[in-house]
Design brief:
This protein is mostly beta strands.
């Protein structure tokens, strides 16, 4: 009988159905891939930022759900794993074909094909069609039909309309063509149930909320007072975004700002700006105003590989944020970016979530060469004696080794024993070498193993056994035997060459026997055969080890060499994988001077002074010279500075008098509390803190010694930088409403289309968001 679902023939995340002649494997809802090997499922996600698509794949929102898809540039493949560009057909007029392959003109190209009567890969080798007797002589995707291995679905399609024919273990299997594989394949308000799209209304809980409480008619969830149900951001006000089907303030759900930064809800998103008294990029980091930290970078390549350049503040920062990786994962700075890795004792997708390893529940939690059996990852092999087991994608396959026959699940029978019955001489032993019987005398015995073995002993002096014989003293008496290739029964019958030394032949398989002039037999290999390892044991067929070529790209194959593949000078590498130009080891030791470290960035060497050192990293870094102002030679309240000649100079601060070497006196104030509330202590004097504190179009007022900036009436923007006129009300139908532009941008209608541009004094991509060109005058 055919395969059944009870034998678990399907891969991970699949459904198995018994069909006439075998089984049909289907990916579960929301999963894609080959159901016979295993399907990949996307983790539940609400936005494209939550969903991790495959390589070269893109994400779009469909029916308020994120959907991975392959873009036009990479239209092939599974968007959850990898999308790829179509492979252009090779032109065999220049690339050539394999052995026996023919280059023929197709509709719009030239391609290789095997000639009539031959099969195989025409780009490698075509072989003559060999007939078959049973399905076992064909691949599992073919069957023996009319004495030839063919696709049984192509011989005669046995399936009804709306079914597709698949070959499983030589048998044609009819599988119903599914209307959907996951819910994104269905039209709005429908979801995928097995193979069909059904209305969402089935199974949705009914609303049962109290008075004044809104109900989400799609999910049946009750919402708090004042909550607005939404499906897209445009359903909410500008300061809110549609999050989990409810209008919410983005800053309250997830604050993306750095320390000392303020989060502002705007344009259905969030904006970060440094708090009063701080400067920098609110998304990356804020530093106190007047921080003397030296800028060290302009581009990522200016930083060590484990740092990222904050181009606004010109400093190298750690690229790992608090939420860069999933739960139970650690963030590792790598090449100016991040790599996420599960913590020890955890496994999973480190970018989404890692789970503790506590046994296993399914095969996908085990290595590909193991399976989850009774809650543990173990070897799934259960083959019979003498069988060989291969494990591919958690599934075990048993087969008999070459020369063995039988059912590998119950046991394989070895080849017939050529040493039974023993073809050797008396007391001689027989062993099998390459399928051939080899005779030899056991330890402690000597003689002719093809005739008779006798116990070892001392040589007889003189030899009483006659010519062409050997003699050993055994138990005090002589034991005679004929030397190899001689016959007789010494000493009564002298040892002599046989009348016909080649009958029977003393030579091994694939040899020919000839009689020399001295009466001895000589064994030679048949034409096209080699000694293995000598003609007595036999000869094997000579094979050109360079056909087919086993070498890697760039390597040369010489059949007379051992090994045959080698890399020609000056190429280096493993000739069976690839030979390439030798690569110079960067940063070993590198061009850096003393007290500097070398980093490889973009295949180039860069030098950086070590912490605490200054100077030219390529010539040498030094410790900074000791400042003459340390320790401070000046009096109390005096300031110390270094003259161009390197001497200390003491001065009294503004607003103070006296001898700076002995001490300064007379300050109006030392801290804000010593001034009126509308003034601040600046330079030891009570002054108005507002001048220069606010941006254009903003007003300043003083609250408890601190300046507070606000945009003037009718203006909006960041009062610390610049305030702008409120945009005029644009009638409905204008392409700029809702605005398709990012933060800090201006949307204008040109030719009936929305055109985005950055606001004055800001830079960046207006489609994703602009940032201030600078934050200080």
């Amino acid at each position: 009988g055919g395969e059944s679902c009870s034998q678990n023939p399907c891969g991970e995340n699949t459904q198995c159905r018994n069909v006439p002649g075998g089984v049909a494997c289907l990916c579960e809802s929301g999963c894609t891939g080959d159901p016979y090997q295993g399907c990949v499922c996307a983790k539940s996600a609400n936005t494209c930022q939550d969903l991790k698509c495959g390589t070269n794949a893109a994400c779009k929102m469909r029916d308020n759900k994120p959907l991975c898809f392959c873009p036009p540039k990479y239209p092939l493949g599974d968007p959850l794993t990898q999308c790829s560009a179509p492979v252009l057909p090779k032109d065999c007029r220049t690339m050539g074909c394999g052995k026996h392959g023919e280059c023929v003109a197709m509709q719009d190209s030239y391609a290789c094909q095997c000639p009539s009567g031959m099969v195989g890969n025409p780009e490698v080798e075509c072989s003559p069609v060999v007939g078959c007797v049973s399905n076992d002589e064909c691949s599992q995707k073919q069957a023996c039909v009319n004495g030839a291995c063919q696709n049984p679905c192509h011989v005669a399609n046995p399936c009804a309309p709306h079914h597709t024919c698949q070959v499983d273990h030589h048998n044609p299997v009819c599988v119903k063509v599914c209307e959907c594989q996951h819910s994104t394949d269905c039209r709005p308000h429908y979801h995928c149930d097995g193979c069909a799209c059904i209305p969402d209304s089935e199974g949705v809980p009914s609303c049962n909320c109290g008075p004044g409480i809104l109900c989400d008619s799609i999910t049946g969830a009750c919402l708090g007072p004042g909550k607005v149900v939404c499906h897209v951001n445009e359903d909410c006000g500008l300061t809110e975004a549609c999050i989990s089907g409810v209008c919410q303030h983005p800053c309250s759900v997830h604050n993306p700002c750095a320390q000392y930064a303020i989060c502002v809800n705007t344009n259905h998103g969030s904006e970060c700006s440094c708090a009063e008294g701080y400067q920098g990029n609110g998304f990356v980091g804020c530093l106190p105003v007047g921080d003397s930290r030296t800028p060290v970078c302009q581009y990522n390549e200016d930083c060590p590989p484990d740092k990222l350049c904050d181009r606004l503040n010109r400093i190298c920062i750690n690229p790992c944020a608090e939420d860069s990786c999933g739960d139970n994962a650690e963030c590792i700075p790598t090449n100016h970016g991040i790599t996420c890795s599960c913590l020890p004792g955890h496994q999973g997708n480190a970018y989404i979530e890692c789970e503790a390893v506590t046994g296993c529940k399914s095969n996908r939690e085990c290595p590909r060469n193991e399976a989850c059996i009774n809650g543990h990852c173990t070897n799934p092999c259960r083959c019979g004696p003498n069988a060989v087991c291969d494990v591919v994608n958690h599934r075990a396959t048993c087969k008999c080794p070459p020369g063995y026959t039988g059912n590998p699940s119950s046991g394989c029978r070895g080849p017939q024993n050529p040493c039974n019955p023993n073809p050797c001489g008396i007391q001689a032993l027989c062993e099998i070498d390459n399928g051939n019987p080899i005779c030899f005398c056991p330890k402690g015995m000597t003689g002719n193993p093809f005739k008779n073995c006798i116990p070892e002993g001392d040589d007889c002096t003189p030899n009483p056994c006659g010519p062409n014989s050997g003699c050993r003293m055994v138990h005090g008496g002589p034991q005679c035997f004929c030397l190899p290739e001689f016959e007789g029964n010494p000493p009564s019958k002298a040892c002599a060459l046989p009348t016909h030394p080649c009958d029977p032949s003393p030579c091994g398989p694939n040899t020919q026997c000839a009689i020399l002039s001295n009466g001895f037999a000589k064994c030679t290999c048949l034409p096209g055969y080699l000694e293995s390892p000598n003609t007595i044991r036999g000869c094997v067929e000579k094979r050109n080890q360079c056909q087919p070529n086993p070498c890697g790209p760039g390597a040369i194959c010489d059949p007379n060499r051992q090994p045959a593949c080698f890399c020609p000078e000056p190429l280096v590498g493993n000739p069976y994988k690839q030979c390439a130009q030798p690569v110079k080891s960067l940063c070993q030791p590198g061009p850096c001077g003393p007290n500097a470290d070398c980093y490889v960035t973009g295949n180039t060497e860069q030098c950086f002074c070590r912490a605490g050192y200054v100077g030219d990293a390529y010539s040498g870094c030094l410790l900074p010279p000791a400042s003459p102002c340390q320790p401070n030679p000046c009096g109390p309240l005096a300031l110390c500075s270094v003259t161009p000649e390197g001497h200390p100079m003491c001065v009294c601060p503004d607003g103070m008098a006296g001898d700076p070497t002995s001490g300064c006196s007379g300050p109006e104030c030392r801290q804000d509390d010593e001034c009126p509330l509308h003034l601040a202590c600046m330079g030891y004097r009570c002054r108005d803190p507002c001048p220069g504190s606010c941006g254009a179009g903003a007003s300043c007022r003083v609250e408890k010694h601190h300046p507070v900036c606000t945009c003037n009436h009718g203006l909006t923007g960041n009062p610390l930088i610049r305030c702008y006129l409120l945009p005029e009300h644009i009638p409905i139908g204008n392409p700029c409403i809702p605005s398709p532009c990012g933060l800090n941008t201006l949307c204008e209608v040109r030719g009936g289309r929305a055109v985005c541009s950055c606001l004055p004094d800001t830079v960046g991509d207006p489609h994703t968001g602009c940032r201030p060109e600078c934050v200080l005058n």
